[in-house]
Records
---
Amino acid sequence: MAREFEPDIPDIVIRRLPLYVRTLRALADSDVANVSSDDLADEIGVTAAQIRRDLSYFGKFGKQGKGYDTRSLEQAITQILQLDREWPVALAGFGSLGHAIAHYRGFGPSSFRIAAIFDRNPDKVGEPLGEIAILSDQCMTSEIRRLGIEIGIIAVPAAEAQEVANAMIDGGVQSILNYAPIVLKTPPNVRVREIDPIWALQTMTYYLGVGS
Amino acid sequence: MAREFEPDIPDIVIRRLPLYVRTLRALADSDVANVSSDDLADEIGVTAAQIRRDLSYFGKFGKQGKGYDTRSLEQAITQILQLDREWPVALAGFGSLGHAIAHYRGFGPSSFRIAAIFDRNPDKVGEPLGEIAILSDQCMTSEIRRLGIEIGIIAVPAAEAQEVANAMIDGGVQSILNYAPIVLKTPPNVRVREIDPIWALQTMTYYLGVGS
């Protein structure tokens, strides 16, 4: 299904949209049926002009002087982000981090489901986790291809991460969530996000000790 | 040391600055001594106008027509973010996630050092990790206060996270990195960032299947 949005939507806009969805969902769940762009901007922490500019990439939303219908805007953005379906995800690495990710409770209500787990340690291979079993990293490419998985999570040590990324991409993965502290080299059609605690910490130190 | 910036710098600006530091450091390390705002914008993935606006909150940087000196701009932003010192960090939860965080190699070259680890499981208490030992969560508040720790990482199950946050805040923590999939309630002087793999995944699904 080809979608017909402008091809050059800045990635920063796409990155903001999940926050829109989350905020709109919280408003709708609190029975706020309608929200002005000013109020929505306040909730999200951007300017109203930014919201209008972001949404303008995808069509016309809201009515002049009437604001947005929270539920329908949430559903529209959910569709834009293709979050109105379930995505199978491959997890590579079943050490302590992989364990934590596989058991992360946030997956339950999300659009994502861990559908395959790989580890290179033979002792872990075969270990069952719910309905799936840990597989050898030797079968990563073929299993990802067989299951039609397009999303991978890398939770292996830094030294193995590039090799794992290559194997995932060979199998058809186009989106990678990388927990390993290295910058992966990937072809232009593959998108990588990094889970980086250092980065997150660096966004908070600014505020420390202010006023002291 | 009181700093004298505008008090109302948008948080989104602060959140972007670590990316500036990282990008400038990479440029400087590649012997790029000078960079135009257009080129820097390209590297960072924002507009040149955005960069000029972001930096204008903190003073005058760069010279008209000459661009920025990469190393000195990197150092200036590092100072603004208070990353030119070491910050001790308290980690709560030494399950599989806590293990992974404690062993995260990214801490090595960073401004952050895990200085105390807490767990409520008596079997884990006393277990050594490098130069520190796992402590009972009973001593969290007092130990955080004793060590002057202002930054906490929460890696406990969702059901325990709020209680842990309260104990950290009682000890003096003002910045929390939260891995538990719940929204913490905190006083206005405490800042929380969430490490949320679902969020990161949600920013990539937009791109999947485009062109297919």
Note: Residues 192 and 210 of chain A are 35 Å apart (CA to CA).
---
Amino acid sequence: MNLLIKNVILPDGDKLKTTDIAVTDGIIVKIGCADENFKADEIIEGNNRLAIPAFVNAHTHMYMSALRNAADDLPFMEWLFNGVMPKEDRLNGEQAYWGSLLSCAEMIKRGCATFCDMHLFPGNSAKAAAECGMRAVVSRGLVGSDGGQKRLDDQFAEIEEWKHEKNIKFMLAPHAIYTCDKEYLLKISSEAKRLGLGLNIHLSESKAEFNDCMRDNGCTPTEYVASLGLFENKTLAAHCVQLTENDISLLAKYGVSVASNPKSNLKLGNGIAPIYQLDQAGVNVCIGTDSAASNNSLNMFSELNYMTLLHKGTNYDSTAIPAKKALDFATVNGAKALGFEKLGKIEEGWAADIALLDTDVPQMMPLRNYYAAICYCCDGSETDTLIIDGKVVMKNKELLTIDTERLYYEINKIVDFLDN
Amino acid sequence: MNLLIKNVILPDGDKLKTTDIAVTDGIIVKIGCADENFKADEIIEGNNRLAIPAFVNAHTHMYMSALRNAADDLPFMEWLFNGVMPKEDRLNGEQAYWGSLLSCAEMIKRGCATFCDMHLFPGNSAKAAAECGMRAVVSRGLVGSDGGQKRLDDQFAEIEEWKHEKNIKFMLAPHAIYTCDKEYLLKISSEAKRLGLGLNIHLSESKAEFNDCMRDNGCTPTEYVASLGLFENKTLAAHCVQLTENDISLLAKYGVSVASNPKSNLKLGNGIAPIYQLDQAGVNVCIGTDSAASNNSLNMFSELNYMTLLHKGTNYDSTAIPAKKALDFATVNGAKALGFEKLGKIEEGWAADIALLDTDVPQMMPLRNYYAAICYCCDGSETDTLIIDGKVVMKNKELLTIDTERLYYEINKIVDFLDN
């Protein structure tokens, strides 16, 4: 299957160039004039469109879009126990699937091709991703102090069910140190080792988590997890807001990837992760949206914008986290954390996960700089085409793999059920 | 002229209602079923659209959209002296007009009806606003240590020229304490008093400004301006990032309005204004985008989102600056600061400055909460209709008062001139 993307704008040093991208079987085979013998099965006209590597959303909870706007501006505990959990408790697997598909629709519309999901309902996000052609790393949120074998077994069954889907991968996800006891953490770590899977964990998100761990274990959450040997697995740690200098050294030493969720951390009153310092220490930083129940948006352009501006502002340094670096966080670093090889750059030999952005809109005028345009000007609505693994899933802003009419109908049904 | 906006969504306590809005000669005359004898000259079908008060952008530099993406990720002084100023020096009045019109186009597309501009080229933003039907408060940035009579005279001539345009108002704008000497500040203040005009000033934006003022005057920038008597004029102070507790008390005592520009302050490495504390002290807080050379976007939805999230996060309080309050900052508070009466709310007897937002998009599903949807879900692209002073300036995302083809042509010409 040959795809030709014509006349798109790419960076050329500090300048811009207009060029073609030829894709064969999901791989970028040529940037520039395609070979004469390249016969395109499909041609995308990219006129005046910026081509960017599609985003990798490194931390989210897909089903929770069904809970969007259910509880906001509340103290954290009230948000969780009165706002989110009572609705979550009533949600079933099929409703979680529709919630996940809604997340897929929003992400595709905003140029995101890949997500890392921590879920409660096996199969829901894998099914949504497979149907709409996204890449996913899926993990069941494992909680408990009862050994949690049932949840692990659910996870193993889910892995078995989706093992033939090449764009669906798995991690094991001990939810957090405050929802898993020590024995369960060790068990999950050993199962991950046995299966060669990575770990996906919420780590040091709030001051409460940090202080409780200091009180109970005499060390920081990061030190605690390191001391249990979890970091000997390939690990993706979400949040990492409350970190000491030693924590940053540990994350760097063990090659832990950090999925930062700047908007969720701010909105829930948890603060700002020391991303500038993590990056300086050589940690692989990536970006997540967290869920639509905490954010309440899954727009990676907005996260990208926060990622650059927030760390310039709080470090009093307008050169901190430049646009090009932040784009790497949101693309290739995420792919690396999730174990996708050669994903997240527009280069020959790399995967054809590409978003095209319309530049004929006031906020993109004048264009001048590729990276500044993406990080500082876009609101995300400029995305009009999305290609994942060489397949076109959105064209001229129309979703080709999702029936939105049906989706919205099902979402409204869920709201009627949950809110009344 | 009667306008009927049908079937829009408005808040109804904690719930939502679908209703009509009837407008006569720019004023909302009825919310609910219009009177039987209300004969609409124009009907807008608002199906599934949220009606919100159009934004008031309380601080910007309109012409600078022509300089967008010219210099980013640089140290502040390099940005200003090597990036912005050499281009600014080459810009002429007509080019500034096209830059201003580009700003108008971007703002209208993102639901903004009113702006407060500090410019270098008399007439450019007033002309742009008048042509496209926006409301504006216009001020010439007054700088100098030479008495600056010429710039004041330019300003007076501009005021005279536009005095018959009811939606164009003026302020006098001493640019900042570091660009105006004491005598000039006093002169401008006295001229403002004479003419009954408000003042528009950049205040305490950077640590450098704060520290220099402490060194040179033995007091903070806010104390310095207060001591000169400037606050005896109705004053709009932009930025106010570096503030002491006494500064906050002074701003409250003198009824100074603060135009906070959260994204610009972050991006230029200046930090975060103490908005939570200013609001608690009773200061009238409003929101600006600053210019497209520093931000680089004029999207008030994004500023609104930053305004809520940033102050929740940095105050470790998820209840800080709730969505409803932030929307007031971005609408009615801005109108108050700029001297527009009964502007910024959708209520009977108030001005018909209304934006309609499409809710049939993934990021707005499920809707549930009016204020959360506006502040936490929207990226701004949902805006499909904008009504200013009862006139429809955008319908179905099409700008009715701006020829964008010509505009983009002129902008590209300016880039060719400035960048080569």
Note: Residues 2-53+344-399 of chain A form a domain with the Urease, subunit C; domain 1 fold (CATH 2.30.40.10).
